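Example for tutorial group B:
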């Protein structure tokens, strides 16, 4: 099954889920949380896979090939794609419905981080699928390409940093509302610290990865003209 077929599978699953949600609107927040839990394992593996790049490009590629043997199975990838799209669209829908009811710093942090994360997922997944359609290997060098094309490093540095920070912030806020009061502040603070450290580590690592050659100018999130 090629990328187009996988995209169709994901879009079909998303459409069916979206139709059901539209008819059962109160269930949207529950489904949003459920899809987040289902994607958690993949996101953890994805972030840890990137951090394997700290041991070098070859080490990352080895980890990436192991992960791909699982998540690039047609059915698995189709379901992941559907889950990512549903998570992003449902998150933006919840933000649109509820931003007027946001009260307090934690509620706003959850809303803003969720909005940014939704937009990032839509941009990032689209860029990866388009690059793969053109035969570009979406490995660590692909992700790092934007860090080596001045002045685009000033976009991609914050772009990646804020994505990781938004993920940790959003998880921390979700935990905040579901923990005993005495644990809420320490857990949220820990999530923010972990987010800053992970984000900074990832950006610095990508800045040190040799740029991707022969990619035809494709970068994660953008297509740049040749130098």
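The residue assignment follows.
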């Amino acid at each position: 099954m090629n990328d187009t077929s996988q995209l169709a599978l994901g879009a079909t699953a998303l459409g069916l889920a979206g139709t059901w949600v539209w008819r059962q609107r109160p269930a949207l927040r529950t489904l949003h949380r459920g899809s987040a839990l289902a994607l958690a394992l993949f996101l953890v593996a994805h972030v840890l896979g990137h951090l394997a790049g700290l041991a070098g490009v070859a080490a990352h590629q080895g980890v990436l090939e192991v992960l791909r043997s699982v998540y690039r199975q047609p059915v698995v990838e189709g379901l992941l794609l559907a889950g990512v799209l549903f998570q992003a669209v449902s998150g933006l829908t919840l933000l649109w419905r509820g931003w007027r009811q946001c009260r307090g710093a934690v509620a706003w942090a959850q809303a803003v981080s969720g909005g940014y994360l939704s937009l990032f997922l839509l941009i990032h997944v689209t860029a990866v699928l388009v690059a793969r359609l053109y035969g570009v290997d979406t490995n660590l060098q692909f992700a790092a390409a934007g860090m080596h094309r001045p002045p685009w490093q000033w976009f991609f540095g914050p772009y990646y940093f804020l994505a990781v920070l938004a993920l940790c912030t959003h998880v921390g806020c979700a935990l905040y509302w579901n923990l005993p009061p005495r644990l809420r502040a320490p857990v949220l603070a820990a999530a923010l610290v972990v987010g800053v450290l992970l984000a900074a580590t990832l950006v610095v690592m990508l800045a040190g990865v040799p740029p991707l050659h022969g990619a035809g100018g494709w970068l994660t999130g953008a297509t740049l003209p040749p130098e």
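The first helix runs from residue 3 to 23. Compare this with the pattern of hydrophobic and polar residues in the output above.
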